[in-house]
Structures are given as C-alpha cells and as structure tokens.
Amino acid sequence: MSAQPIEQPPITYFSTERNRRAVETTIDTLSLPYIAVTARPAAVHVIASSIRDLCVWTFQLGGRIDQGVTAADGESAMYTLHTGTPARADGSSVAVQVHAISVAGDEPLSGGAERV
Description:
The protein has about 120 residues and is α/β, with parallel strands linked by helices. It is built from two helices and six strands; from the N terminus they run H-E-E-H-E-E-E-E. Strands 1-2-5-4-3-6 form a six-stranded mixed β-sheet, covered by helices on one side. A hairpin with a 5-residue loop joins strand 3 and strand 4 (about 75-85).
C-alpha cells in the first residue's frame, strides 16, 4: 500500500466558497428572491427573475443600479445592482452583483438606489 499526497485546492476556491456562503446566508436571512447564485473570488453574481425582484434586493441592501446590454430591437435590457452583504463582525463584506432582464418600459424603481 502506498500513500499519495493530496493536492490542496487553489486558494481562490476557499475565498469563492466563503463568499458564496456569505451571500446564501444573506439571501436566507433577508428572504431575498433569486434564481441562481454563481460565486467568484471577487464578487458573487445573483440572477433575479424580474425587475421587481431586483427592487427587493435594492430596498434591502441598497447599492447602485446600472443598465447594461440592451437588445438590438430595444425591447429588453439587462440591469445590474452593485451591492454587498451586510458587514461581518470584522467589518468586511462580500461584493454582490444582482442581474435582471427587463422588457421595454419596465425600469427599476429608484427606491434608495443610485441609478447610473
């Protein structure tokens, strides 16, 4: 019998998982609506099902909403909320980007968010 060394996962794996857990805890604690969560070392990306869901996130966490890509026909656009989790005991937080697609005329509410 021989033993082989176990390869350690890259350090980014640990920060990515820590970020994912922080965002999932925030989602559960605040009952935030979402479809999917994708964690990355620098930020966690959340997909919301509608502009209304994006507004719920904005109301709960604040942040800045940007309009991103607009469809060629002008009938839909993607909006992204740039926000973060509530501060932890050590004062740190995790960057969160919440994405939602809207149809023409269904823009996010400005309730507390800075719109760029």
